[in-house]
Target: Helix-turn-helix transcriptional regulator
Amino acid sequence: MNRQSPDVRDVVAGLLDDRRLIAACSERDMGSLFRLLNARGVSTRRIAAAVDVSQGRVYDYMRGKTRVEKLTLFEQIADAFHIPGHMLGLARRGWEPAAAGPQPHSLMGPIEADADDLSVVDHFRNADRQTGGGRLYAAVVRHLSDKVAARLVDAGSGHHVFGAAAALTEMAAWMAHDSGQNDRAAKHFARALPLAQASGDVLLAANVAAGRSHLALQTGDAASSVGWAQAGLDLATQGARVPALTAKLHTMKARALAASAQHLAASRALDQARHAFHCSTEAHHPWLSPFDAAALASESALILRDLGRLSEALEHATEAVTLRSTGRARSLTLSRISQVDILIRHGELDAAVHAGHGLLNASPLLGSVRVLQQLDELRQLLEPHQGHRPIREYLRQFDESRRARMLLLADIIPPSSGGTRR
Model:
């Protein structure tokens, strides 16, 4: 059976930290680059089409008969393959995530934050974990407009108000995403990054980059997801060491690489995430939501699932369910969905039904379109197994539970909320 040639940008995304690609780019040896891509399954025809040269010319480059010399062709290669401009001695390309500008304040000391702002963020964050973003999004946006916006232009406000604005704008982005409004989420993330930069808080900026990486993956752009995760890692090296944030960023990178079938690179990124997390010392940052052991287990399960390592994925999914407290209703529900998903893929249908019963009445008022979308994706996984009587009976109960949930959440469900990756 002929396998479709992989997307070249996904292949490149998995090689950005590979010494062979780095060497080829630094030496501007495009023949070596093309050979590396071809060895990873990208056809010479696709390489030629991407960079707008003949297939014969590509062969000449690969055989060392000639070299790329023209600046315009280097630019075409960088843009076609999403190779960051600096790797080829070029200016930053238009598609690259904007780099953080000069930081007006160092992050080596304690982060300044107004106690009232911190209290508001904690209040919204705790409510969101339990009730979902759909019922809180409007309140966060209103607070930004009524209580924060005017302070940004008040000469008497300190730089820390930009941190509060960034943290709340990032929170609005996540809540919009949780409500099935990804276009709005993207706009909020785009606004949060310059606010974080204006505050001088590079770690807050890195955390926003992690959010943008997540959203890019959900909307099917794995290459951009890798780019944003790497941008966040680059930012994180500029500030005080917060290992949990570094682990989170490596995890986002691993998820994007796994989604694009870059198995070795994804496994390496996951190992880096685990190393950062388990070697960590306690480090607190007031604006960042915790990335804890349950979150690492949950993300690891999804990465390993996409890598086809289902037994390991199931271990991590079960660990995530065990670790996640009932006070985190959405996280617990998502972890349970992942557990059932992996059990189905692993062929353990009776165990999947047993675990799935916990989802039928779990948090029916949880205002999360994202949960609804993932429940629908779970149903699609179950459908081919309807010949198995327990699955067939479970699906009847599942559909009844879904109808009740849709009625209860009719006020927050947008007209169209297509499926997403988890």
